[in-house]
Amino acid sequence: MNGLGEAANAIAASESGLLEIRGLIKRFGGVTAVNALDMTVRGGDVHALIGPNGSGKTTTLNVISALYHADGGSIRFDGAQLVGMPSHAIAKAGIARTFQNIRLFGELSVVENVMIGRHVRTHAGFLSALVPGGATAREERATRASAQELLAFVGLDGAGDATARSLPYGDQRRVEIARALASEPRLLLLDEPAAGMNPTETDTLIALLRRIRELGTTLLLIEHDMNLVMSVSDRITVLNFGQHIAEGPPDAIARNPDVITAYLGGTLDAA
Ligand SMILES: Nc1ncnc2c1ncn2[C@@H]1O[C@H](COP(=O)(O)OP(=O)(O)OP(=O)(O)O)[C@@H](O)[C@H]1O
Questions:
Q1: Which residues contact 5 (CB under 8 A, 6 or more apart)?
Q2: CA distance to 32, 92, 156, 236, 249, per residue, from 257 (Å)
Q3: How far is the CA of 260 from the centre of ligand 1 (A)?
Q4: Helix axes 199-214, 169-181, angle to 10 degrees
Q5: Best residue among 24, 26, 31, 98 to mutate for probing ligand 1, ranked by most atoms within 8 Å of CB
Q6: Could you give the domains of the chain?
Q7: CB-based pocket (< 6 A), ligand 1
Q8: Backbone phi, then psi, for 118, in 5-degree steps?
Q9: Which residue has its alpha carbon closest to ligand 1 atom 6?
Q10: By three-state DSSP, how is residue 74 classified?
Q11: How far apart are CA 112 and CA 148, in angstroms?
């Protein structure tokens, strides 16, 4: 495709939404965790998905990344239908994620954890990049060098040789983000990236999220820390009982009566 065609496509994607969710349904037995959800994430935005506990946020992320199968509805990413795609194809299409509970290989080094995130973009398979002779030497060197660059980008320069489990909690979360970035995603899904962080770690995270956005990576994040949500988000979608109750910029969301009602006694005041 020529450059003009790519530019036109990029504009079309940003106008119509890089990620378009329509009528999404996910049930667990008698519980409808996500109930006819419509949501649009514009290309280039930091988009937050918020809502009270149990409102369906993590389930939505899990369906987008095909950890769970949708029971109905459609998810289009840059126009392509994701529902029915296996999770590795979704990763290859350009969507990466982190998890609410950190999922690092604790005994492996920090840089090796980040290298693993790269496997969707290399010819070598999962883990084989770490085995001598398992990948081409040149590819392995390039993968290691770009993993080191990503560690510097997330503020963990010099931590590459430590075992992942030896790092403080907040640093482990940043390793997870580096690992997700290693797959060069266009859309990065973050499930409660500030959970368990102290205020200093959260401030560092806010700065990192802004730098990721500056790279042109679109972010969709679930977060309970309203200070983070209100300071980094371009748009916010609010869920309650699996349904979309509001979508808009932070100031409009903070004033929305339905949102305030859903959060009565909750944490929106933190904004
Ligand atoms: N694997 C599962 N099996 C059965 N029920 C589930 C499962 N995952 C989620 N649920 C239910 O679906 C509903 C939505 O849960 P979900 O974890 O998506 O909410 P959430 O908004 O992410 O909550 P939190 O903010 O507490 O993480 C809840 O009623 C939950 O109990």
A1: none
A2: 24, 40, 42, 15, 14
A3: 21
A4: 10
A5: 31
A6: 36-94+185-271 (3.40.50.300), 103-184 (3.40.50.300)
A7: 28, 31, 33, 51, 53-59
A8: -85, -15
A9: 28
A10: strand
A11: 10
State the greatest distance between any 2 C-alpha atoms of the chain, in Å, as a whole number. Answer: 60
- The amino acid present at 50, given as its one-letter code, is I
**ipTM of this model?**
0.97
pLDDT tens for residues 243-271? 999 999 999 999 999 898 887 655 554 43
* Tokens coding 31: 């519980």
For 23, list phi and psi in degrees, rounded to 5. Answer: 60, 30
| Residue 134 φ/ψ, nearest 5 degrees | -75, -30
Of all helices (H) and strands (E), which one includes residue 107? none
Local structure of residue 69 (DSSP, 8 states): -
The pLDDT score that the predictor gives to residue 271 is 39
Q: Name residues of the chain where pLDDT drops below 50.
A: 1-14, 269-271
